[in-house]
Amino acid sequence: MNTQKIALGGGCHWCTEAVFQSLIGVERVEQGYVASTGNNNSFSEAVIVHFNTERISLKTLIEIHLHTHKSTSNHSLRERYRSAVYYFTKKQEQQAIQHLKILQQDFGELIITKVLSFSAFKPSRESLQDYYKTNPERPFCKRFIDPKINLLLKKYTNTLKKNVMERTLNTQG
Predict the structure, then answer these.
(1) Most buried pick, 22, 75, 97, 152, via CB within 10 A?
(2) CA distance 152 to 171
(3) For the chain, which residues make up each domain, given as ranges?
(4) What residues are labeled active site?
(5) Is 131 exposed, middle or buried (0-12, 13-18, 19+ CB in 10 A)?
């Protein structure tokens, strides 16, 4: 099994964690705060996704990431919610840059997502880990996470773990 990791930031890490925990080929998701270097050395909400490259590609992960957060919006909270792909290797950096160029055609506006080197990680406190798995009925989950899971169900059905599809279909029907 070929396992890699990539860090992704964009919106609330509860949302990002839930999205990537739902995908076939994702082995583990670490929720917390990621920092890069230089002007991006402050910690921003993000996740580290450990994935099996034989089951899901980096391109698919980046594509889903772009479609499940405001990847074209340079809003006032970008310091806290930096839209980024944090790479661990030079090869990942090159791939991420290439994937973003290709995926730009799916968007009417310019993607603002940055490709940054991974520098440091601080996990969220334990009470926030697996937030959607342990609190699916909370108003936050209903309002912000369920629409992202529904988008996955509609647009990326072949990437969803069976238990996620069953749970989503059962709550809708």
Answers:
(1) 22
(2) 15
(3) 3-165
(4) 12
(5) buried
| φ, ψ at 120 (rounded to 5°) | -155, 160
Task: Write out the chain's pLDDT in tens, 173 residues.
Answer: 799 999 999 988 999 999 999 999 999 999 999 999 999 999 999 999 999 999 999 999 999 999 999 999 887 777 788 999 999 999 999 999 999 999 999 999 999 999 999 999 999 999 999 999 999 999 999 999 999 999 999 999 899 898 776 666 556 55
Helices (H) and strands (E) in the chain, counts: 7, 6
Q: What is the CATH number of domain 3-165?
A: 3.30.1060.10
pTM over cut 0.90: yes
Residue with tokens 């806290």: 80
